[in-house]
């Protein structure tokens, strides 16, 4: 709660950590919950989801600001992250 109230911007990293009975991989539920909290507080343009390849998207992420990255290689998203930070005048 303290982080939420003191934040102006957030990157939420969603990795394929939990496997469901159908074999699909999902982000942990606490991460999904935190994504919603930050998006509700900061807005979709200031709470950016970094989505690992192979991690199931939750239904309302489609069309929202998210940055995909290859499994195990978040560094591959660095250029897109830089662009977001420049857009928000944080760099």
UniProtKB/TrEMBL annotation:
A GO MF label: NADP+ nucleosidase activity
InterPro entries: CAP12/PCTIR_TIR_dom (IPR019302)
Domain CD-NTase-associated protein 12/Pycsar effector protein TIR: 1-69
Protein's name according to its UniProt entry: CD-NTase-associated protein 12/Pycsar effector protein TIR domain-containing protein
């Amino acid at each position: 709660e303290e982080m939420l109230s003191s934040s102006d911007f957030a990157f939420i990293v969603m990795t394929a950590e939990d496997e469901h009975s159908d074999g699909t991989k999902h982000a942990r539920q606490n991460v999904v919950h935190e994504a919603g909290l930050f998006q509700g507080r900061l807005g979709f343009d200031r709470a950016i989801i970094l989505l690992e390849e192979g991690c199931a998207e939750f239904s309302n992420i489609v069309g929202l600001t998210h940055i995909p990255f290859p499994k195990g290689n978040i560094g591959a998203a660095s250029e897109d992250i830089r662009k977001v930070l420049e857009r928000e005048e944080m760099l």
